[in-house]
Write a structure and sequence with these properties.
The chain is α/β, with parallel strands linked by helices and about 350 residues long. Among the domains are: about 1-30 and about 35-65 and about 175-250, Ribulose 1,5 Bisphosphate Carboxylase/Oxygenase, CATH 3.30.190.20; about 65-175, Rossmann fold, CATH 3.40.50. The protein contains twelve helices and ten strands. It has helices at about 1-5, 10-30, 85-95, 110-115, 120-125, 140-145, 145-150, 165-175, 200-215, 245-295, 315-325, 330-355; strands spanning about 40-45, 55-60, 70-75, 105, 130-135, 155-160, 175-180, 185-195, 225-230, 235-240. The strands form three sheets. A four-stranded antiparallel β-sheet has the order 8-1-9-10, with helices on one face. The chain has a four-stranded parallel β-sheet with strand order 4-3-5-6. It has a two-stranded antiparallel sheet with strand order 2-7. β3, α3 (about 85-95) and β4 form a beta-alpha-beta unit. The protein starts with a helix and ends in a 5-residue tail after the last helix. Mean pLDDT is about 75; it is low at about 330-335. It is found in: Nucleus, Nucleolus. Belongs to the universal ribosomal protein uL1 family. Highly divergent. This is Ribosomal L1 domain-containing protein 1. Keywords: Acetylation, Coiled coil, Isopeptide bond, Nucleus, Phosphoprotein, Ubl conjugation. GO terms for molecular function: RNA binding.
């Protein structure tokens, strides 16, 4: 809560007036009809990068959106109704509850079918300044909208369409703002007002935003280092600068943490050394006991006579060799007999040819 006490209202108002004067001069010099109003944002610089990402909803006392902005509402598909019938049903519901400012209603079925191509999604993103969705279909939207909605920070804000105070809830969502604290850097920005508002209204919105951010940030110790206000085309003007005493507090905390870690590590090392020493002593005792028991149990080994292997007679091998030697002889004889028989046949044929035929 130190940031709230140190935020000087007069200093904030001076910065707002200077910013508005700069925007008026620029608009009159360049193109007065292109950008009638510009967004005024708060830029927070933190002392440390947060460990976890966080989204903070900030209610504002004065609406930070102009009447010319286009707002789109995504609704669920009502049972036993077509897409046109669901559009009529929710238009009638918003009129009955007194909700104003919503320019178009798109059921979930229409979003799936008509806005499936990439070009249609980009066109939808450019046509509207703010998107609101029924909280009953919020988990189904990311896969159908695409990453460009989230990169441009135009992801739909959830609203309970079944609540009794529907007009109040939608008005808070439309005229409020949100701050996205990421764990990738120490700077974050939230839209707080527009250039068409009065200086007192802008200062009140800035004070309310700083108060809610300080109370809802999940960080310990000094949190915010710097706060600036800026528009889309201007330089950032400082509104709050923290004391250097916060830096000494952070340094002392960072110095304490390594000492605590060292003490804890030394305690762990001592306990581990003790456990190792006890284990080694127990192991030595067990070894000594095992040796003594083995010496008692050992007996004198008995001598066993070694049996010499008996050699078998080589008669069979010799007989096999003799058979092998005798085997080729009859083969030779047979070859000789075959040759003789062939010669005899040839001679007989010759003899038969020489005998003359008798008529």
């Amino acid at each position: 809560m130190a940031e709230k006490a140190l935020l000087d209202r007069s200093q904030v108002k001076k910065a707002v007036q200077a910013l508005q004067a700069f925007l008026k001069n620029k608009a009159s010099g360049e193109a007065p009809f292109l950008d009638e109003t510009q967004h005024i944002s708060l830029l927070f610089t933190l002392w440390k990068i947060p460990k976890e990402a966080q989204t903070i909803r900030i209610p504002l006392p004065h609406g930070q959106r102009s009447d010319t902005e286009e707002i789109c509402l995504f609704t669920r598909d009502e049972p036993n109704m077509s897409s046109e019938q669901t559009q009529r049903f929710y238009k009638k519901l918003l009129q009955e509850r007194g909700v104003k400012g919503i320019s178009e209603i798109i059921p979930y079925k229409v979003l799936k079918t008509e806005y499936k191509p990439y070009e249609a999604k980009r066109r939808l993103l450019g046509n509207f300044d703010l998107f609101i969705s029924d909280d009953r279909i919020r988990r189904l939207l990311p896969s159908h909208l695409g990453k460009h909605f989230y990169k441009s920070k135009k992801e739909p804000l959830c609203v309970n369409l079944q609540s009794k105070h529907l007009a109040r809830d939608i008005e808070r969502v439309i005229q409020g703002t949100s701050l996205k604290v990421t764990n990738k850097g120490c700077c974050c920005m939230a839209r707080v007002a527009h250039s068409g508002m009065a200086a007192d209204e802008v200062t009140e919105n800035i004070e309310a935003a700083v108060q809610t951010v300080v109370t809802k940030l999940r960080m310990k110790g000094p949190v915010i280092k710097l706060i600036h206000i800026k528009s889309q085309t201007s330089v950032a003007l400082p509104v709050y600068t923290s004391d250097l005493g916060h830096l000494s507090v952070l340094e002392s905390k960072q110095a304490q943490t390594p000492k605590d870690k060292e003490s804890a590590s030394t305690k762990k090392n001592k306990t581990e050394d003790k456990e190792q020493a006890d284990a080694t002593a127990e192991g030595k005792r067990k070894v000594k006991k095992n040796k003594a028991a083995s010496e008692e149990e050992e007996e004198i080994p008995q001598l066993v006579p070694i049996e010499t292997p008996v050699k078998k007679p080589k008669l069979e091998k010799a007989s096999k060799k003799k058979k092998l030697e005798k085997a080729p002889k009859p083969a030779a004889l047979k070859k000789g007999t075959k040759a003789q028989s062939k010669l005899i046949k040839k001679t007989d044929s010759k003899v038969k040819r020489k005998v003359p035929k008798v008529k």
